[in-house]
Amino acid sequence: MAGKKGQIREGSVFIRLCSRVFYNPEMEFCRDVSSLCVGAAGGKLSLLDAMCGTGIRGLRYKKENENVASLVLLDISGHAVKCARRNAAMNKIRCRAIQKDVCEHLQTHSFDFVELDPFGSPAPYLYDAARSFREKKCGWLSLTATDMAVLCGAHHAACLKNYGAVPLDNEFCHENAARILAGKVVLSFSPFNLLASPAFTLSHRHYLKMVFRLQQGASLAVDGVKKLGFVSYCPGCCFRQAKRLASLERCPHCNHLMQIAGPVYLGELWESPLVERMLEKNSQRNYKSAAKIERLLKTMIEENKIGGYGYYDLHVIAKKFGGRIASMEEALERLRSEGFEAQRTHFRPTAIRTNAPHERIVEIFSNK
Ligand SMILES: C[S@@+](CC[C@H](N)C(=O)[O-])C[C@H]1O[C@@H](n2cnc3c(N)ncnc32)[C@H](O)[C@@H]1O
Ligand SMILES: [Zn+2]
Predict the structure, then answer these.
(1) Does residue 256 sit in the same domain as residue 191?
(2) How many domains does the chain have?
(3) Separation of CA 258 and ligand 1 centre (Å)
(4) Do 205 and 73 have their domain in common?
(5) Which one of 21, 57, 60, 229 has the largest count of C-beta atoms within 10 Å of its C-beta?
(6) Which of 183-187, 270-274, 318-322 has the lowest mean pLDDT?
(7) Could you list the residue range(s) of the whole structural domain that residue 187 is in?
(8) Ligand 2 centroid to 321 CA: how many Å?
(9) What CATH number is associated with residue 91?
(10) Phi and psi dihedrals of 115, rounded to 5?
């Protein structure tokens, strides 16, 4: 949205763009949702926007949320820091703006909330982020990963290299991507006796946004690691099984060879009470995507109730089981009328999440 001449309005701040400083207007939606999450986190937060670019994220987080007590904007680029400082002054937002490498800064400073918004994968920054929280009882880590293709299995070797995990290139690859990223975060934080648990997960276009709640404690960290496992998937009939150790070589339904991916995080991807608070905050803000955000957050709350691993895509079901493609409403109704829970998933508009067992799904959708 245009502001005064040469300015851009986003959320409740105005910024000026600067040459050689990155700004993607398409990420406004992500910043809206992330700002709601910062507010819903509560407490009094010292916040680091560690890859600030124009400063838009950190500035919005502070301006839109009373619980952000202090803000540091940081970037390795001198152009970005100058730009962010100017944007902070223009919005009369008190903060420090520092030109430094994020890893170097995190070695000697700690914050309650760390925002990492890199180009591509956040994996190279996780170790220093984890170290920075080692003296804290609790905290928050917010990550953007724009290497969705890698996490979704387009480049197996790159996923192994960045995340130490084997990906899956199938219909629920976006959820799998979030679970690979979460697994990597859990394993990066556990050696520092920190439990990292996903509080919020968004898959949108080419990126993932995940926010983790961090808690100090050796036994908590062990509990987190115990939530890691592997997922087995049958490309013949879409059967999937998620367990701490993969044990199936062949599909129990069609005898096809199983594909195995992981390690992945098997626990919940959202804290529903946090998402409820985000929903409430969204209703009090004038974001231009407010209606879309409301639908998104409500879907997340519903899909979290069903839980489980992965979802079923209506097009893939029709292709594999021989039936016609059911409409979303019809598919949900068929499952519900058989006594199962069924909901949309925010990960994919043509997919459903259900607690129906695989063999019942095959029966319900075959040849209809
Ligand atoms: C995707 S952009 C950030 C966008 C910004 N957060 C926004 O919402 O518009 C990534 C930024 O990270 C900065 N960056 C890259 N490596 C860095 C490092 N090691 N330490 C600090 N900043 C870094 C880049 O200069 C760039 O401004
Ligand atoms: Zn099978």
Answers:
(1) yes
(2) 2
(3) 40
(4) yes
(5) 57
(6) 318-322
(7) 7-304
(8) 11
(9) 3.40.50.150
(10) -105, 120
**pTM recorded for the entire structure:** 0.98
Ligand 1 neighbourhood includes 147 CB (under 6 angstroms): no
pLDDT of residue 324: 87
3 state SS of 210: strand
- β-partners of residue 70 are 46
Instruction: Calculate how far, in angstroms, residue 103's C-alpha sits from the geometric centre of ligand 1.
Output: 12
Same domain assignment for residues 114 and 234? yes
Determine the average pLDDT of the residues in 88-116. 98
Q: Is 227 touching ligand 1 by the criterion CB < 6 Å?
A: no
User: Are 361 and 235 part of one and the same domain?
Assistant: no
Confidence of residue 2 (pLDDT cuts 50, 70, 90): low
* Shared domain check, 89 and 195: yes
pLDDT tens string 21-49: 999 999 999 999 999 999 999 999 999 99
Taking the CA of residue 57 as reference, the ligand 1 atom at the shortest distance is 8
Q: From the CB of 209, is ligand 1 less than 6 Å away?
A: no
Rounded distance from Cα 166 to ligand 1 centre (Å): 27
Q: Which residue type is seen at 108?
A: T
Pick from 15, 21, 76, 146 the residue to mutate for probing ligand 1's pocket: most ligand atoms within 8 Å of its CB: 76
Paired tokens of 362: 């095959």
Which atom of ligand 1 lies at the shortest distance from residue 54's CA? 9
